[in-house]
Amino acid sequence: MDLNLFDELEKNKSSLRIRITFFFIFFLMAVFAVFIITSVLQANTVTRFLGFRYAIPTVERAMDLIDADAFERLIRTKDPTDPYYVETQQRFLEIKEDTNVMYLYTKAQVEGTMFMYVIDGSDVPGGELFSDLGDPEDLAFFDRAAMRAFKTGTTLIGTIDQQNEWGSLISVYAPIINHAGEVIGLLGSDVDASEIVQWIRTQVIWQLGIVFILIVVGLVVYLGVIKLLNKSFSLITGKEG
User: Is residue 194 within 8 Å of residue 168, measured between CB atoms?
Assistant: First the structure.
């Protein structure tokens, strides 16, 4: 075979091999991208559904009980015998027990990310889940949606929070605004997300199985095409390689 023709065929074979390899790499990247995007969308969709279905209606009911002037008075006095505090705490607990939320509470800023509990309807006073008026809480350890809701004055749904001592939660945070239009606190509602987290994990495992199958199929096709390319080149040139 003419040397120039052989060199030309060799270049064409190398070019085809590179293109096939890049296509396989692109295929792998596309599979992983679809997997990641699908997983994120599933988590976000489920989170927003639970937030809108359970937490937001609970927050709206509780927000109807908030008197901005009385709330600011509680922040100043920290008086657990205040009639407004006693009545509202009981009403909060009734709402909490009437819905599918785990926690229902209000907080006010002390300084920076440090907040204090004001009215907590998560349990009876003295109960295991109850936080006293004035108990501190650092929102730096909470979902970032909490501080964003306080700073922006908008109601926000957080992400699924699994990194805390209370279990897997989906939270909604609503700003408490006084008559001057200032955000003076947060009203929060937390929904138990443990079953949803387990469902998401099951879906991820199932999707990983599909990804693995696609990768194996893609690898088999890739190796088959490369083998076919080498065989075709050998038949033309009479040389292995």
Answer: yes
Fold of 54-194: Beta-Lactamase (3.30.450)
Name the residue ranges covered by the structural domains of the chain.
Answer: 3-41+197-236, 54-194
φ/ψ region of 206 (left if φ > 0, alpha if ψ in -120 to 50, else beta) reads alpha
Please provide the DSSP assignment of 131-197 as one string: --TT-EEEGGGS-HHHHHHHHHT--EE---B-SSTT-SEEEEEEEEE-TTS-EEEEEEEEEE-HHHH
Whole-structure pTM value: 0.64
* Beta strand residue intervals within the chain, DSSP E: 103-111, 114-120, 136-138, 156-157, 169-177, 183-192
- How do residues 133-182 score in pLDDT, each as one tens digit? 999 999 887 778 889 999 999 988 877 654 555 567 778 899 999 999 99
Give the C-alpha separation, 59 to 155, whole Å.
9
Give per-residue pLDDT as tens, 178-220.
Answer: 999 999 999 998 887 666 656 566 666 666 777 777 777 777 8
The closest alpha carbon to 119, from 63, 165, 171, 158, belongs to 63
Residues 133-161, buried b or exposed e (16+ Cβ, 10 A)?
bbeebebeebbebbbebbeeeebbbbebb
* Phi, psi (degrees; rounded to nearest 5) at 128: -60, -35
